[in-house]
Amino acid sequence: MREGDSIGQFRRRTGFAAWNRYAAVNSEFVPIHMDHEAGRAAGMPGAFGMGNLQVAYLHCLLRQWLEEQDRSGRVGGLSVQFRSPDTGGEVTATGEITQVGAERVEIALTVLDQEQQRLATGTATVELDH
């Protein structure tokens, strides 16, 4: 594990089915995520995915990476900035190690859509167990 290393990818297909499942689990039935007319009324091309679902995908990416490293640890900090709405399709969460310490790893994060447009960027601190 070194600075500049990729931590892999976490991919999911998004759209009404994924948004509806996420809304059901989180009691987040917001019209802009369920109805194209409501999304358009909010200035978007139609309904769009929840930002917190992208955050969940980033958490999945980080947990997947820890498992692949055969390490245990926890996400000690996560910061995300949303850049564009998820309007459905394939979403890919990626990360690159920016700093490695004895007990923690800093990671730059990105969520991309199928056209490689940035949906979100962020950083994470992963605190490693010994």
TrEMBL record:
Q: Which residues form a coiled coil?
A: none
What residue stretches are annotated with the MaoC-like domain? 19-90
Fetch the Gene3D superfamilies from UniProt: Hotdog Thioesterase
Entry's InterPro entries? HotDog_dom_sf (IPR029069), MaoC-like_dom (IPR002539)
Domain of life, per the record? Bacteria
Query: What family does this belong to?
Result: Belongs to the enoyl-CoA hydratase/isomerase family.
**Under what name is this protein listed?**
MaoC-like domain-containing protein
Q: Tell me the organism's taxonomic lineage.
A: Bacteria, Bacillati, Actinomycetota, Actinomycetes, Kineosporiales
